[in-house]
Hints:
Pfam families: DUF3105. By secondary structure, the chain is an alpha/beta fold.
Amino acid sequence: MSRTGxxxxxxxxxxxxxxMRRAQQVRDRRNRVITVTLSTVIVAGLVGFGAYAIxxxxxxxxxxxxxAKKPVRGEKSWDAKKLGRNHVTKxxxxxxxxxxxxxxxxxxxxxxxxxxxxxxxNENAVHSLEHGAVWVTYNGxxxxxxxxxxxxxxxxxxxxxxxxxxxxxxxxMLSAWGHQLTxxxxxxxxxxxxxxxxxxxxxxxxxxxxCTNGLEGS
Length: 218
């Protein structure tokens, strides 16, 4: 090949190489743009999801706070500030039956999902309420199946107890410190609502206090 031919071939190769380099540079720039765009989209998505999750979390917290403040339909409430909390050794005359608070014995009834088949002293049961327990009581108007179903629920629920109270007004009554609900059936959805709201609920004067190692029924 002549010198001129070699020179032309070299020039052509260089042109092809330059063209390939330019094409590669274009691809590199395009890939960088795609990468940056995808990264931006992903980051934006993560930020958006994080904000969504935070908003949902805040909404849930607000809903739970609102639910904690909202009474269970039909419940009665007493001003907790007017319920005495002194330890006494004598019998106490309470203004409600079963009592939902007031002066009480220094020993609490064991309330670790405890089902008592005989009546228990009010003064000891009230101390359990002070520790955040829900006290389920019933009389002869309650059906045997309802009593059994409530007993099963209590047995599975720490910070709860159950016992008969023959002279109470309603067939089934649920009491927490400062709050009380009367129902006719164990299947009433308000039973679960009351447990959810008041077992170690915000009304508890001594949250975290023990429900074990208390007084046992006869």
